[in-house]
Design a protein that fits this description.
α1 runs antiparallel to α2 and α3 packs across α4. This protein has 14 helices and 9 strands. The protein is α/β, with parallel strands linked by helices. The structure holds ligand C2E and magnesium ion (MG) (3 copies). The site of one magnesium ion has 4 residues, from loops. It comes from Sulfurirhabdus autotrophica.
């Protein structure tokens, strides 16, 4: 059970968060089992959202939460999105699943806000197929309206490869979303093709440096150079930079020294179930206090 795994990891201390993450990868499940299970998972309410804080590297305060999808088939280990999102994408199941994620995250945000819990913003990941849906803007507006979630409270994360697949159509969609007041972030930056000239045309607010560059940032000169360059590039374009996958104090220090704006990672907190987010926020925990 998810929560038990979480508490176990927490009890054992921060270093064990990684075990928890590995625990979750049910790589043993074969593709057919995954696919037929996925088809029924929505109606059986087997999906859960976890939330991972985004923390400001100057103030140390939480500035948002990223919703991360989990699948908990009954009696089995939790399945990682890395294992089922590609299949959901191929089969088209990602469209209803993605809408469920958006709706659940917006409803959670609105509920937290009503309860006086301030999470600043909620970030939702969009898949390629979802982003290319003709009615994406319509779905997003409808969900915001129905959940009474403020558009300014929503951030959408899209990878650069999704945008580059059809940059002209993408820029149109992104402009519409941005005009609605929604914040936009490029996820996994550095792992796909990017055309900097296009990047300039996109109304995005944030670049997220992929965790593959953060992992060895203090020991690998190339990774350090890439991260430093991304931060400089982003700042010259008036974008903020979020580093993903920050696990150590040394990585954190490097990122602060190089003026990175925000971080996410096990060093501060792994993705948490909603109840634990409330606990974290009520404790008022930030980077420089705990
Ligand atoms: P992502 O959006 O880049 O999310 C970051 C991933 O890094 C998450 O994995 C998170 O749990 C993990 N992570 C966070 N901090 C650390 C750390 O310090 N160290 C390490 N090693 N990992 C860390 P997760 O939750 O397994 O999600 C994997 C990917 O699946 C996400 O990458 C995203 O691309 C996709 N995904 C997750 N939820 C959704 C969703 O609702 N919709 C769509 N379309 N994709 C999703
Ligand atoms: Mg993301
Ligand atoms: Mg990412
Ligand atoms: Mg990533």
């Amino acid at each position: 059970n998810a929560d038990t795994a979480m508490y176990r990891a927490k009890d054992a201390g921060r270093n064990n968060y990684q075990f928890y993450a590995q625990d979750m990868n049910a790589r043993a499940m074969d593709r057919l089992t995954l696919e037929s299970g996925l088809r029924r998972a929505l109606e059986r309410k087997e999906f859960i959202l976890y939330y991972q804080p985004k923390v400001n590297l100057v103030s140390g305060e939480i500035e948002g939460m990223e919703a991360l999808l989990r699948w908990q088939p009954p009696g089995q280990k939790m399945v990682s999105p890395l294992d089922f999102i590609p299949i959901a994408e191929e089969t088209g199941l990602i469209v209803p699943i993605g809408e469920w994620v958006l709706r659940t995250a917006c409803a959670q945000y609105a509920a937290w806000k009503n309860a006086g819990v301030n999470v600043c913003r909620i970030a939702v990941n969009l898949s390629a197929r979802q982003f290319m849906q003709q009615n994406l803007v319509e779905v997003v507006s409808r969900v915001l309206h129905e959940t009474e979630c403020d558009a300014a409270g929503l951030e959408l994360e899209i990878t650069e490869s999704i945008i580059m697949e059809n940059p002209d159509a993408a820029v149109e969609t992104l402009r519409t979303l941005s005009n609605m007041g929604i914040k936009l972030a490029i996820d996994d930056f550095g792992t796909g093709y990017s055309s900097l000239s296009y990047l300039k045309r996109f109304p995005i607010g944030y670049l997220k440096i992929d965790q593959s560059f953060v992992r060895d940032i203090t020991t690998d000169a190339d990774d350090a150079a890439i991260a430093t360059a991304v931060i400089a590039l982003a700042h010259s374009m008036k974008l903020q930079v979020i580093a993903e996958g920050v696990e150590t104090a040394e990585q954190l220090q490097f990122l602060r020294d190089h003026n990175c704006d925000q971080m996410q990672g096990y060093f501060f907190s792994p993705p948490l179930p909603a109840e634990q987010v409330v606990k974290l926020l009520k404790e008022g925990r930030g980077l420089w206090s705990s």
